[in-house]
Amino acid sequence: MHYDVIIIGAGSMGMAAGYYTAKKGKKVLLIDAYDPPHSEGSHHGESRIIRHAYGEGLSYVPMALRAQELWDELQESTNELLFSKTGVLTVGAPESEFILNILKSADTHSLTVQKLTSEEIHDKWSGFLVPDDMIGCFEENSGVLFSEACIRTYKNLAVENGAVLKMNTKVTGISIVDGTVTVEIEQGSIKGNSLIIATGKGTPDILAFLGLTLPLQLVRKTFSWLSQTKVSMVPIDSRHLPLNFQTSYTTGFRV
Fold first, then answer.
1. What is the pLDDT of residue 237?
2. pTM above threshold 0.70
């Protein structure tokens, strides 16, 4: 079959692209070396934080807000639990660039963000002991995405909309001739009109088939989920609240 769109990599980006493209009536093929969700992708693990007031810079905010709209739509249309609006608390020095960017993001985009002292943080969530010289920014409309559930939902919807999945399939070559994309896999050749590459850590290897290179540096990010054993450390409203703790060297999330 000749496809309208071939997508290599069916993780967070690829599976979402597969669903939305198939939903528009395109003939879509998704190829992945594994079978998402799996432990080899950036989506691995139960949850990921989603923030709107971005400490990394104001340019991210419109994308974050649009993403939140799409997550809300997806959750409502499928009745799957994909997002939990727990709120997000970011803690750091009041003069830090990250904290200043959050406050500027909130002001520029009219986001609901509470600025809290360390005492106010402890009064609201008794399990958090924050140094006196730090402040908190609480985003009540942000929260937690259940990343692997999101992948499964996109996967099911993509198939329902006619997308074809070739999982546990390794790409061995790619060529583009006269506007036609040919993707080589171990089972043969597949042709299409367009190609989307969403291969995460495998991107340099895939681009090499096309003679392309990008200045990408692979970085390992470690996620941990720790069980809470002391009742006294549970936030007073018993919600699992992400805590984004900013220092010069690390970012952590208490979930």
1. 37
2. yes
